[in-house]
Amino acid sequence: MLDAIQSALQTEGLIWLIIAVLVAGVVRGFSGFGSAMIIMPVASSVLSPVEAVIFLVSAEVLGPLPNLPNSYRNGAPRDIGLLILGAALMLPVGLWCLSIMEPTAFGWLISGIILALLVLMMTGWRYRGVLTRPIKFITGCLSGFMTGFAGIPGPPVIMLYMASTLPVKMIRANFNMYLVAVDVILFPTLWLTGQLQWSIVLLGLLAGIPYLAANVVGARLFNPDAERFFRLVAYGVIAAAALLGLPIWKG
Q1: Residue 73 burial (CB count, 10 A)
Q2: What's the domain count of the chain?
């Protein structure tokens, strides 16, 4: 075990992974989302596509747990169940697409998706209609595919709720519950499809320790009255992470 830990600590680009994890933890603890959009561009710049996804899900196993009870009280668990049902159906399809993806193209795609999402989020568009069960299920399907293919489960769900008129506290709680639930189904799916790499799992678990602490800090910083300011900061961090993940920085 000691040799495995030493090997994990010698991973090239480890310092960037840790910085990304710390920043992502604070953002996730405060807003309930954003961690994958910060971690994945950085992880995809130093790890292979599959390794980046494994690192993300392993790091997120522990981090959000301290905030989960409060999210359950403030959120809508039934909505999360419907989203997860759709996600579970499409997750294996996304993983299969990931397994045949070329690393450089993957890096461009990840950063492109995140930058496009960021632009949409910053427009402030709102959906005034009813969030029906079919809408939630389809959103879950899209999220499941993106989870397997890009390691980013949040974009469809984030757009669904950020474009709604629901209270900020409920939106934040739903984000946190959904992302935890996705990690729960992603880990065994990776194992069953033979794509799980235990050395990367260990690396992610080690990174999960500072990630957990950062989540706690972010949760304590949460204040609905300061939401607008923090969103601006989060948008800047997400944009920087997407730009850092561009393949142009390699070599």
Answers
A1: 10
A2: 1
Q: How far apart are CA 138 and CA 90, in angstroms?
A: 10
Q: What is the DSSP letter of 1?
A: -
Range of the domain at 19: 2-249
176: which 2 tokens? 């946190």
Over the stretch 169-217, which tens digit does the pLDDT of each residue have? 888 888 889 888 888 888 888 888 788 888 888 888 888 899 989 988 8
The three-class DSSP label of residue 84 is helix
Would you say 53 and 201 are in contact if contact means Cβ atoms under 8 Å apart?
A: no
pTM metric for this prediction:
0.72
> Mean pLDDT over residues 45-74, rounded?
84
Non-local CB neighbours of 209 within 8 Å, separated by 6+ positions: 62
List, in sequence order, the alpha helices (H) in the chain: 2-9, 14-31, 35-46, 49-59, 68-74, 77-99, 103-123, 133-150, 154-162, 168-192, 198-221, 227-244
